[in-house]
Amino acid sequence: MPEALLALEGVTSGYMGDIDVLRNVSLTVKQGQISGLIGLNGAGKSTLFKTIYGFLRPKSGSIHLAGADITGKLPHTLIDEGVWYIPQESSLFPYLTVEENLRLPLEGRRQRFGATLEQRLEDTLTRFPVLREKRASQAGDLSGGQQKSLEFAKAYMVQPRVCLIDEPSIGLAPKVAADMFKWIRTFADAGMGILLVDHNVRRVVAMADHVYVLSLGEITASGEPADFQQDLHTQVREWLGISI
Ligand SMILES: Nc1ncnc2c1ncn2[C@@H]1O[C@H](COP(=O)(O)OP(=O)(O)OP(=O)(O)O)[C@@H](O)[C@H]1O
């Protein structure tokens, strides 16, 4: 069994004073594996990502990456540690071209990426042919599906150790969404650890190596996909605390 790459231990976090949105959350993401997180609207899924990625500092608990304490580290330093975040909303610069958006995360890190930047850009454009066609277009002029592909292509450029992926299929046509899920599998097969949130519970359970249920800011169930497969609907409803 692979060791935990990302480990949260007893994380409590929130936006204001004494209101805790997350309470005592513990979970792990292993190398080359997908940890799936499911929960109702408002359960705290995006808050969890913001806490891991340093937009919010936990009030208590710890976050470790490959054994090193990264609790409260800021987003730009986390990129250097090998953590990347594909948020639900766009992280693109709409007035920059596709190529400029791809280059940007690596440009400021010449020491680390300078030698490989051009090769990696070519490799990325080969793997995402639609982006090669559009490399000189402004990102804001791309379709929704193409913009999401660009988000994944940015992650491919950076090749992080852990990728946090929030609602990758939201607003996408089924075929485009299926492509994004294929990329997630490809990333994991290449050794990345993935923490995935998606409203498509069946898809998350089918893809994940480990599933966590977040309900009102607390992990109320976790297990292997097989534990969630039988009569998924009823079980998930039960775990999420909804009366049927
Ligand atoms: N910036 C903020 N300031 C204050 N409270 C917030 C903020 N963002 C979210 N919250 C609150 O935190 C709680 C959890 O929200 P969060 O967005 O993390 O849930 P979620 O599980 O991602 O929901 P969804 O599936 O709808 O995206 C909600 O009660 C929400 O109102």
Short description:
The protein is α/β, with parallel strands linked by helices. The chain has two domains: 1-82 and 161-244, Rossmann fold, CATH 3.40.50.300; 94-159, no CATH class. It is 40% helix and 24% strand.
Largest sheet data: 6 strands, mixed
Q: Tell me the radius of gyration.
A: 18 Å
| Count, helices | 11
CATH architecture assignment of the largest domain = 3-Layer(aba) Sandwich
CATH top level label of the largest domain: Alpha Beta
Structural class per helix/strand content? alpha/beta
Helix fraction bin: 25-40%
Percentage beta strand: 15-25%
Calculate the mean pLDDT score and round it. Answer: 90
CATH 4th-level superfamily of the largest domain: P-loop containing nucleotide triphosphate hydrolases
List the bound ligands.
adenosine-5'-triphosphate
The strand count comes to 10
Family: Belongs to the ABC transporter superfamily.
Protein name: ABC transporter ATP-binding protein
Domain ABC transporter: 6-241
Keywords: Amino-acid transport, ATP-binding, Cell membrane, Membrane, Nucleotide-binding, Transport
Folded structure, characterized:
By secondary structure, the protein is an alpha/beta fold. The chain has two domains: 1-82 and 161-244, Rossmann fold (3-Layer(aba) Sandwich); 94-159, no CATH class. The protein has eleven helices and ten strands. The protein has helices spanning 45-52, 75-81, 98-107, 110-113, 117-127, 129-133, 144-158, 174-189, 201-207, 225-229, 232-240; strands at residues 4-13, 22-30, 34-38, 60-65, 68-69, 83-86, 162-166, 193-197, 210-215, 218-223. The protein has a six-stranded mixed beta sheet with strand order 6-7-8-3-9-10, sandwiched between helices. A four-stranded antiparallel beta sheet has the order 2-1-4-5, covered by helices on one side. Helix 3 packs parallel to helix 7 (144-158). The protein is globular and about 50 Å long. The termini are far apart. 36% of the residues are buried. Bound molecules: adenosine-5'-triphosphate. Residues 15, 21, 39, 41-47 line the site of adenosine-5'-triphosphate (ATP). Adenosine-5'-triphosphate binds next to helix 1. InterPro entries: AAA+_ATPase (IPR003593), ABC_transporter-like_ATP-bd (IPR003439), BCAA_Transport_ATP-bd_LivF (IPR052156), P-loop_NTPase (IPR027417). Pfam families: ABC_tran (PF00005). Belongs to the ABC transporter superfamily. This is ABC transporter ATP-binding protein. One of its GO terms (molecular function) is ATP hydrolysis activity.
